[in-house]
Amino acid sequence: MNQLNGILATCFFELKRMWTFQRLGIFVVLSSFPPLIVLFLLWGSLFLGETQTLNFLLLVIIFLVAIVGMLSLLLWAPTNIYSELEGKSWGFIASRPGGRISILFGKYLAAVIQSYAICQFALVGSFSIAVFGNAIRDPIVAYLVLSVLALLACICIGAVMSLIGVQFYRRAMVTAAAYLVGIELVVATIPAIVGKFTVRQHLQDLGLNWLSKELPLKPTIYYNTFGDYADWLNLLCLAAITIFSLSAAAYIIQRREYLIGDEA
Amino acid sequence: MIELQNVTKLYKNVIGVNDITMSLSSGVYGLLGPNGSGKTTLINLIMGQIQPTLGLVTLFGNNPWRRDHLLRDVGLCPATEVNLPHVTALEWVSYMMQLHGFGLKEAKSRAVQSLTFLKMDHAMNRPMRDYSLGMRQRTKLAQAIGHEPHLLILDEPFNGLDPVARFEMIQFLRDWGKQGKSLILASHILHEVEAIQPSFMLISGGRLLASGTPDEVRGLLADSPNQFVIRCDTPRDLAARLIEFASVSVVKVDEVNRSLEITCVSPAHLLAGLPTICNETGCVIYEMHSLEEPLKELFSALMRFHRGENQPLGKHAGSVAAMK
Questions:
Q1: Which residue in A121, A119, A124, A109 sits closest to A150, CA to CA?
Q2: Per-domain residue ranges for chain B?
Q3: How far is CA A92 from CA B41, B47, B153, B277, in A?
Q4: Of A212, A241, B100, B281, which has the highest C-beta tally within 10 A?
Q5: Which residues of chain A neighbour B40 with C-beta distances below 8 Å?
C-alpha cells in the first residue's frame, strides 16, 4: 500500500510539473502536428485536385500519430533516472523507503499518460478534420481501434524505454532513439521470428486484424510475409514484453549504485 | 546504531573510503574532513546507496544495501542543491512525505508542520526558484525531519548560509541532540561543527584518522607537530628563549613584521611554558595563530602521523573509533 502511495505520488508530482511553458509547448507542438498534416492533405485535395493521397489517409494518420507518440515517449520515459541525477534530486528520493521503485513506476506511469494524451489529442484532431472533409470511411471504428493501439504502444514501448533509462542512464535518450530506429524500425520489418520480439509487429498484426475493412490494402500479402498471429497471442506477447521490461528495470534499479552527491 | 567493519569502497581505481572500522551508538557526531575526503561516500555506505567493495556496514543491526525499509527512521539532507525551480517547497516536501509512505493528507500536514518549524511558512507556497540559498537549505532540512526520524544525517548543511541562518541552524541541531535523537553532521568547517559539541570523526583521504570528544581532539592538536606564528614586541629575545625548548626545532625571526615562525614537534610543552617566558622577559604578545587553518593543520598533523613521519600524537590518533 505504501509502495502504491509512492508510485501514485510520483506520477501525480510529475504530471503537475508538466504545467510549465516549455513542457506545454512541447505538448502542443507534438499533438497538433498530425492534424496540421491532415489539414494540409485535405487542402491539397480540395484546391489542387490531388485525391490519391486521401485513399491512404488512415495510414497517414496511423504513421503520424505513431511518430508523435514515440517522440513523446522518447522525451519522458528514458530520462527517468538521468533527470533525477541531473536535477540532483536522486539523493532525496533514494533515501526514502521504496523510493527507487516509486520513481521507476511513477515516472513510467506519468510518461505513458502524457504520451497517450498527446496521441489522443492528435487522433481527435486528425479524425475531426478528416470527418469534416468527408475523407474517411467509418471514422468511429478507426478512431476507437487506433486509440486502443496507441494505448498499447505507450504502455509497451514506455516500459522498454524505462528499462533503457535505468540501464543506460547516462546515454538514455540516445540509446532509446537507437532502439526505436534499430529495433522498431529495422528489425520489425524482417520477416522472421526475430521480428516477433518487437512491439511494432504485434501492433501491426492487431491493427490489420481490427481495421481490415477500413484499410485501403488487403492484408493478405502482409500475413503471407509476416505470419498471422491470433489477437490473444499478440496481446500476450505485448504483455510479456511490458512485464519483462518493467521487472528487469525494477531488478536493476534496486541493485544499481547511483551516487548521492558529487563526491566519489 | 551504525557499525562499519574494515569497510573499503573503490570506484574503479579511486579509493572512496579505505579500511574504516567504527561503531556509533545513539548520539551526535561530527564527520569532519576536507573536500573530497570521503565523507559523502561514507554517508552513501551508511544509507545503503552503495555497496562496500570490502568489509561490512550495518545500520540498526542490518546491512542497509537493498534494505531500504531501514531508512524509515533516517532523515537525510544531502549536500546537493535541489533543482526544481517551478515547484513550491510545500509541494516538494509533501511529495517526499508521500514517498515515505504517508497518505496525501498526512503528508501535507507533516510538510506544513516541518516547514513552519523551520520558519518557511511565509514562503512555502512560492516556487523554489525565488528562494535564497538559506531558504533552500531549510526546505531540504524540512524534508529530512518531516517524518520525525531518529537519525538525522546532514551533509554540509552550513553551505551558503548567512551568519543568522548559521546561528539558527546550530541552535536547531543542538536542540535535536538534546531531544535524545541522533545526528551525523558532515562538514569541512571545524568551528561550526564544534559549536554543536558532537563527538568527532576525522576523515581524510578516505581514512578515519582520529575520533573522540572535542577535548580529546583538542588534546591531539596540542600534541601534534605543527607550525605557528607569534607577533610580539621583542621577537629576537623571545626567539632566544623559545629555542631552549627541546620540542622547538626551528625558529625564524621576521624583524619587519616583528613576528616569529616556530616549528615544533609537541606544542603542548611550549604553550604551557610561554606565559612564564613572557613574565620573565616582559615580552608582549599581540597575536598568535597557526600557520594553517585549524582543521587543515589537524589533518596535516594526523596525516604526518599516519605516514609515520613524526612521533606518536596521543592515544586517540588513528585509533578505532568506539564511541559511547
A1: A119
A2: 2-212, 221-306
A3: 15, 11, 12, 56
A4: B100
A5: 259-263
- Across the interface, of A2, A88, A254, the residue whose CB is closest to B83 is A88
User: Can you tell me the ipTM of this complex?
Assistant: 0.83
Nearest to A261 among B72, B79, B87 (CB): B79
Residue A87 to residue B82, Cβ atoms within 8 A: yes
Say how far apart CA A58 and CA B77 lie, in whole Å: 54
Say yes or no: B162 contacts chain A, CB-CB below 8 A.
Answer: no
Opening angle at CA B69, ends B64 and B74, nearest 5: 75
Q: Is B142 on the interface with A (CB under 8 A)?
A: no
Phi-psi region of B61 (alpha: psi -120 to 50; beta: other; left: phi over 0): left
HSE-CB at B65 with a 13 A cutoff on CA atoms is 13
How many whole angstroms separate alpha carbon A255 and alpha carbon A202?
32
Quick one: which of A13, A264, A33, A30 has its CA closest to B88? A13
Q: Which helix (H) or strand (E) holds B187?
A: strand B182-187
With a CB cutoff of 8 Å and minimum separation 6, the contacts of A48 are none
pLDDT value for A52: 67
Over residues B110-118, mean pLDDT? 91
* Cα–Cα separations (whole angstroms), residue B151 to A18, B40, B73, B180: 35, 16, 6, 10
- B236: which 3 cell numbers? 629576537
Strands (E), A88-190: none
Domain extents for chain A? Answer: 2-255
C-alpha atoms less than 13 angstroms from C-alpha of A192 in its C-beta half-sphere: 4
Separation between Cα atoms, residue A219 and residue A232, nearest integer Å: 18
C-alpha cell at A109: 506511469
Q: Which residues touch A2 (CB under 8 Å, ≥6 apart)?
A: A97, A98, B101
The rounded mean pLDDT for chain A is 87
Q: How far apart are CA B139 and CA A139, in angstroms?
A: 52
Work out the minimum CA distance from B231 to partner chain A, whole angstroms: 39
The CATH label, of 3.30.70.100, 3.30.1370.10, 2.40.50.140, 3.40.50.300, for the domain at B221-306 is: 3.30.70.100
Ranges A75-79, A193-197, B126-130: which has the least confidence? A193-197
**Domain B2-212 CATH assignment equals 3.40.50.300:** yes
- The C-alpha torsion from B196 through B200 and B201 to B205, rounded to 10°, is 80
pLDDT tens-digit map of B159-170:
777 777 788 888
Query: Is residue A17 predicted with pLDDT exceeding 80?
Result: yes
Contacts of B148 (CB under 8 A, 6+ apart): none
- Cα distance between residue B2 and residue B60, in whole Å: 6
Q: What are the beta bridge partners of residue B17?
A: B9
Long-range contacts at B240-248 (CB < 8 A, ≥ 24 apart): B241/B277, B241/B280, B241/B281, B242/B270, B242/B277, B245/B269, B245/B270, B245/B273
